[in-house]
């Protein structure tokens, strides 16, 4: 996901910014990535949960929308893009967001949050870049698919420090959520307890969370300190991200179909019931994997909220 988000904002014209996945939820780990402009948090969204008059943590700041960028989420499957834009469009004084996003922010500056959300979903530039990173699927139209109670629904939200306050920016909520005073330098220390409290509201067996930090391009930091090994690792990481993003766009159904034809043909040619035995063994392995996943509490599929 860090590679997807990094190249997504790259394609939107953002300069010298990348995403780093955090594997440890503590302030020191986050502070090591400084400067940290904000974080994007992925979590399982409870089916049927509706926005309430009072958030479970923090407090709604309805007046803040006049002084920061906050957009309501109006379409499905775009919460990741919306979360990262919630950070970027509030960091114009620290990040070069590029002419396209700057024009979009200026155009929507006087809009209420619902119209900002509509403008975001109707932006041809943002939509085209977002769709260019969508997984290729010949079977499911992700723009039209609706979640059911059998699906695991995941949602992205953003946390960042704006005007001396730590804000949670969630397009499914009616307003930004304030978590108290927080300047830029205090962000790692202030946001981690908020995230820990949020995770603490889930059952102990729920571990499907992901945290991405929006940070300054680490290649720039490596060049500044003259660490060539670090720079090489970062360049290799970018190469890997490009490969992964290319795989996301590719439709492998035709390739898989031809492989299956070849395997089945080989088994049939062996005769003596080899095909039937092979099929029974495959069915048994599939059932065993399904049972194992059920024991671990894993869903069979997931979609974004």
From TrEMBL:
InterPro entries, per database record: Papain-like_cys_pep_sf, Peptidase_C12_UCH, Peptidase_C12_UCH_sf, Ubiquitinyl_hydrolase_UCH37, UCH_C
Name of the protein: Ubiquitin carboxyl-terminal hydrolase
Class of enzymatic activity (EC top level): hydrolase
Active-site residues per Swiss-Prot or TrEMBL entry: 79 (nucleophile), 155 (proton donor)
Cellular compartments per GO CC: cytoplasm
Lineage: Eukaryota, Fungi, Dikarya, Ascomycota, Pezizomycotina
E.C. numbers: 3.4.19.12
Ranges of residues in domain UCH catalytic: 1-216
Protein family per UniProt: Belongs to the peptidase C12 family.
Site (Transition state stabilizer): 73
Source superkingdom: Eukaryota
Catalytic activity: Thiol-dependent hydrolysis of ester, thioester, amide, peptide and isopeptide bonds formed by the C-terminal Gly of ubiquitin (a 76-residue protein attached to proteins as an intracellular targeting signal)
């Amino acid at each position: 996901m860090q590679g997807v988000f990094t190249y997504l904002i790259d394609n939107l014209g953002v300069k010298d910014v990348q995403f780093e996945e955090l594997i440890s939820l503590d302030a020191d780990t986050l502070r090591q990535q400084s400067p940290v402009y904000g974080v994007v948090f992925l979590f399982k969204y409870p089916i049927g949960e509706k926005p309430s008059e009072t958030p479970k943590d923090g407090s709604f700041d309805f007046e803040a929308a006049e002084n920061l960028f906050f957009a309501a989420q109006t379409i499905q499957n775009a919460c990741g893009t919306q979360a990262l834009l919630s950070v970027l469009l509030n960091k114009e004084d620290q990040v070069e967001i590029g002419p396209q996003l700057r024009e979009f922010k200026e155009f929507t500056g006087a809009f209420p949050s619902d119209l900002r959300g509509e403008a975001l979903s109707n932006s041809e530039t943002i939509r085209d870049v977002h769709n260019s990173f969508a997984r290729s699927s010949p079977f499911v139209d992700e723009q039209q698919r609706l979640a059911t109670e059998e699906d695991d629904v995941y949602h992205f939200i953003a946390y960042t420090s704006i005007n001396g306050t730590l804000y949670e920016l969630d397009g499914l909520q009616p307003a930004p959520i304030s978590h108290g005073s927080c300047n830029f330098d205090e962000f790692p220390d202030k946001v981690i307890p908020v995230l820990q409290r949020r995770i603490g509201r889930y059952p102990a067996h729920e571990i499907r969370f992901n945290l991405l930090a929006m940070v300054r391009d680490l290649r720039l930091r490596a060049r500044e300190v003259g660490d060539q090994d670090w720079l090489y690792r970062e360049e290799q990481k970018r190469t890997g991200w490009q490969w992964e993003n290319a795989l996301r766009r590719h439709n492998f159904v035709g390739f898989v179909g031809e492989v299956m034809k070849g395997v089945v043909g080989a088994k049939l040619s062996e005769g003596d019931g080899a095909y039937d035995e092979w099929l029974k063994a495959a069915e048994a392995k599939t059932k065993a994997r399904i049972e194992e996943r059920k024991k671990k509490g894993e869903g069979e599929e997931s979609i974004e909220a």
